[in-house]
């Protein structure tokens, strides 16, 4: 994990191609000191709006990674690519079906050296991703950790994303997940609305992702960069 391109990421901003963002806000985000910009969303993501957002981010030196959630939005030109596999999806298509379809159709074009699998554990039933994938979000802490360990030790996925999009999650689960992995990087996202929650998440996860607050409170979003980077992981 230490030599991988994602290994040094401590803080990421996540931008949704389906949401408007001004040039001024984008400039502040890209110049904030974040480790990378992730582009992705659960609905309304198209080739055109993904290309448009990528071209705007490309004016800056910050790393830019695409979370590939649909074949239509598999846009070339990003620095890196993450392919989500929804671990607790109700339907197999969200775990491996759509991914194998993509490999069958575009395998000869995929830049494997800058592409990684990303195990998604969605734990907020109200999140769009949960509704789209039919994720089974109600589970005990032990069940959640079992998913994480299966992704880490059986599937050998390099990244496991614990997703609470729309609400702040259970940091006890996140910390235990980070303690339990042997090689995967634990990424946390959901409900981070300022410095306090950013620091709390940073104590529990390898990487913290900040998204929705960008669109409603830019100053609070920007404050999360320092909060995460100045906080040590506590295991």
Any overview of this molecule?
The chain has a single domain (11-229), classed as FMN-linked oxidoreductases (TIM Barrel), CATH 3.20.20. The chain is 34% helix and 18% strand. It is built from eight helices and eight strands, in the order E-H-E-H-E-E-H-E-H-H-E-H-E-H-E-H. The chain has an eight-stranded parallel beta barrel, surrounded by five helices. Helix 7 links the parallel strand 7 (185-189) and strand 8. Helix 5 (141-154) packs parallel to helix 6 (171-180) and helix 7 (195-202) runs parallel beside helix 8. The radius of gyration is 16 Å and the shape is globular.
In short:
This protein is α/β, with parallel strands linked by helices. The chain has helices at 23-30, 47-57, 97-106, 128-133, 141-154, 171-180, 195-202, 218-229; strands at residues 11-15, 36-39, 63-67, 80-86, 115-122, 159-163, 185-189, 207-210.
Number of strands: 8
Q: Which class in CATH terms?
A: Alpha Beta
By CATH, the architecture is named: Alpha-Beta Barrel
Order of secondary-structure elements: EHEHEEHEHHEHEHEH
Question: Features of this protein?
Answer:
235 residues, alpha/beta, TIM Barrel, globular, 8-stranded parallel β-barrel, 8 helices
SSE topology:
Layout: E1 11-15, H1 23-30, E2 36-39, H2 47-57, E3 63-67, E4 80-86, H3 97-106, E5 115-122, H4 128-133, H5 141-154, E6 159-163, H6 171-180, E7 185-189, H7 195-202, E8 207-210, H8 218-229
Parallel strand pairs: 1-2, 1-8, 2-3, 3-4, 4-5, 5-6, 6-7, 7-8
């Amino acid at each position: 994990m230490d030599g991988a391109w994602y290994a040094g990421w401590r803080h990421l901003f996540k931008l949704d191609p389906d949401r408007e963002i001004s040039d001024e806000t984008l400039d502040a985000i890209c110049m904030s000191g974040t480790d990378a910009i992730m582009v992705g969303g659960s609905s309304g993501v198209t080739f055109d709006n993904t290309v448009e957002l990528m071209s705007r981010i490309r004016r800056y030196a910050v790393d830019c990674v695409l979370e590939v959630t649909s074949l239509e939005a598999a846009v070339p030109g990003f620095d890196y690519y993450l392919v989500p596999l929804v671990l607790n999806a109700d339907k197999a298509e969200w775990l491996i079906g759509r991914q194998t379809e993509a490999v069958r159709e575009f395998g000869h074009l995929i830049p494997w050296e800058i592409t990684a699998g990303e195990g998604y554990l969605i734990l907020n039933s109200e999140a769009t991703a949960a509704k789209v994938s039919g994720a089974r979000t109600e589970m005990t802490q032990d069940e959640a950790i079992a998913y994480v360990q299966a992704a880490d030790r059986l599937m050998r996925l390099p990244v496991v994303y614990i997703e609470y999009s729309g609400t702040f999650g259970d940091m006890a689960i996140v910390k235990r997940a980070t303690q339990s992995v042997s090689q995967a990087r634990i990424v946390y996202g959901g409900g981070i609305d300022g410095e306090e929650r950013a620091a709390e998440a940073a104590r529990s996860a390898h990487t913290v992702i900040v998204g929705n607050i960008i669109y409603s409170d830019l100053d609070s979003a920007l404050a999360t960069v320092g909060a995460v980077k100045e906080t040590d992981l506590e295991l």
